[in-house]
Amino acid sequence: MYFVHAIHTGKGIRVVYQPQYDLLSRRVVSAEALLRWRHPRYGDVPPSVLIPMVNRLGLHLPLFDLVVKEVIEVLLELRRQGADVPIAVNASIDTVCEPGMADLLAAKMWDACLPTRLLKVEVTEDLPVLDELCLSGCLNTLRAKGFPLSLDDFGAGSATFNVLFKMPFDEVKIDGAFIRNMETSSHSHAIVTTLISLAKGLNLKLVAEGIENESLLAALLGIGCHIGQGYALARPMEREDFIQHQLARLPAMAMKAT
Question: Which residues contact 209 (CB under 8 A, 6 or more apart)?
Fold first, then answer.
């Protein structure tokens, strides 16, 4: 199969980076690493097709390892240039619950002389969770080692709320579908407002996905959401473009000698 070959060779697979901004100051506060794969015959495969295929084939671990390796290289390059920007890597529940995963990730970061706070673990798999005790234990171990924890697609299903109250997440990301529909659907607007209030009540950081125009950005600021990502702010960037984007925003006095 083409994708199995791609994982072993890296051919056709790449990681792009979408910055996450403070919506008021437009300062980059973090970024998300996103997987891309170009099929040799059919071209770019959308994530909605790619990720389920990865999980179905049981390839989540080698793929996660590939993405983490790439992200660590980017974090190292940024740090050499004087920039520390946390980057989120997507991880399925099966990946998070893999025995020894927290130790393995911590070892990779320590070997690179990087603080674990710079690698955010973003749990992306559909809920409900079959083994809540296992997931809670694994997430607590990751958090104890200093990795920030994010819950993706917050509000997309009722099971999400049950897990949120039981798991040690630091951050939640509002499902982009709700954000994109805010201007045309009072229902979506009400859901986003409620989710923002809930996250604040739980003392969780909040990130809005899918901000595609300036009016959405203004609306989110108006209801108390201050961190977001989307095409209105920046499209996903190739590795070198992202690094240069970050370095260009550094004050000259903050630049370190390489």
Answer: 173, 174, 175, 176, 179, 228, 229, 230
